[in-house]
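Sequence, structure tokens reproduced for reference:
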Amino acid sequence: MRQATGNSFRMIAALAAMAALALAALTTLGGCGGGKVTGGGLPTGLLVQGVVQDENGRAVSGIRVKLLPGDASALTQADGRFAIPVSGSTPARFTVELAGRETQFLRYFTYGMQTFEIGCDLGPNLPAAQDNVIDIGNIKLYSQDAIPPPPGEVCSQ
């Protein structure tokens, strides 16, 4: 009986030591910075962020920004900001959807120096990731009573 009890204590001690090592390994790896790396070498755990404003620079909430390829998306918050966590392949493009705000805004927006239709699959590649964050920057929507932007690269559906 005494030998069985000793073996049980050794087994419990060994399990506790393995659990402590596993916890230490997870803590150490979690602090190394950056996301996991997949077989293709691209980091996962990316965050795509930006801000949507109207033509006067005011934040616009409730606008859906969708990443392509795939269907990762987020609605803009009260401050116009959005953040979309990305796992798997790195997105290359994005779209903007009005999500019920059609009567307030015109059918186009500007990004960078180009004009696009709402819901259009933008051709330009997203900026490069910096510290696992892709910052799209500012997207400007135009309200129904705004002076339209000059003609640009407008894609049609």
